[in-house]
Automatic annotation (TrEMBL):
Organism: Salinispira pacifica
Keyword flag Transferase: no
Protein name stated in the entry: Hydrolase, haloacid dehalogenase-like family
Organism domain of life: Bacteria
Listed Pfam families: HAD_2 (PF13419)
Alphabetic keyword roster: Hydrolase
KW Zinc (keyword) present: no
Length: 298
């Protein structure tokens, strides 16, 4: 933990501008394959939801892809999905028991670095069955990601956007994915050298990454976070930074607009205010907060 944290603590300021970049669903079109092929099958298997697998899939995809919680930490996503699933009409009709995971819930509310190493430490002290089940699920997800997720490419406009950014700004990946996975994906695609540091799940929350590397080191209007999820936006808000949304479903357009319009506005000090607000309005409209009216009969 300490060595890895040191990587963001030692982030070196070399320019006047800072840009934090989310990876999954923002740089890479990876959210669909990860959630549909890796997270969700493990959710159904390890949480014993075979009897309501369609409902489980609907809820998992809603929470992780198509709503305001898109991109949240996996353990928080697990709890939220189970909570929604318990309310799903199909589940009520069939009387299937959905785990409550109260010990995991308690841990996620107390702990800030919600990664596997933190969970394993917690298990050493309190080996509660909920925590063991969450560990088994998370391990199954990691194995599936290792086995299935490959050949991912960045959205086509991303390499050019990165090239433009680094001419004027210090850059860092700000993500909740394990660092090893991000490093592998960025290296595989030859874009690793465009960022100074990769901050992942093991180094705390996205807000913590931004606070550690950028807050009070750059002017608030010179710090920009780029992301595809509301969690990216709130991380930016926590330090008073600017936010550029990569709108789910319109990623390529968003990246082209970044190069043509948003990056120049940011560098000219014309980003905050009306311009940012119109982008944020589009972003918030694209993601609902509850499954009512989205999932059938909910
Ligand atoms: Mg993302």
């Amino acid at each position: 933990m300490t060595d890895i944290l040191e990587r963001i603590r030692s982030f070196e300021k070399t320019k006047d501008f800072f840009i934090g970049i989310d990876s999954d669903g923002c740089v890479f079109d990876s959210m669909g394959v990860k959630h549909k092929e890796c997270f969700c099958p493990a959710f159904i298997n390890v949480m014993n939801l075979q009897g309501v697998s369609d409902a489980a899939r609907e809820v998992w995809e809603f929470v992780n892809l198509f709503s305001k919680t898109r991109g949240i930490n996996r353990f928080k996503a697990l709890i939220l999905s189970l909570d929604f699933l318990r309310e799903h009409p199909e589940v009520k009709k069939r009387g299937v028991e959905v785990p409550r995971m109260d010990a995991l819930r308690e841990w996620t509310e107390r702990e800030s670095a919600l990664g596997m190493s933190g969970l394993l430490r917690e298990i050493d002290e309190h080996p509660h069955p909920d925590l063991l089940q969450a560990r088994d699920w998370s391990e199954e997800v990691n194995l599936a990601v290792g086995r299935i997720v490959r050949n991912l490419a960045p959205f086509p406009a991303v390499p050019d956007a990165l090239k433009q950014m680094v001419r004027h700004a210090d850059t860092m990946v700000v993500s909740q994915t394990p660092v090893a996975n991000i490093e592998h994906e960025w290296k595989e695609n030859g874009i690793h050298d465009y960022v100074q540091t990769i901050a992942g799940q093991e180094m705390g929350s996205k807000a913590f990454h931004l606070k550690t590397a950028a807050y009070e080191r750059y002017e608030p209007s010179s710090i920009l976070m780029i992301g595809d999820a509301p969690g990216d936006y709130s991380a930016a808000q926590e330090i008073g930074a600017l936010f550029y949304p990569i709108i789910p479903g319109g990623e390529e357009t968003a990246w082209r607009r970044f190069v043509d319009e948003a990056l120049p506005a940011f560098l000219d000090g014309k980003y905050r205010g009306e311009y940012e607000k119109s982008l944020l309005d589009d972003f918030h409209r694209s993601l609902p907060s509850t499954p009512h009216g989205i999932i059938h009969d909910f």
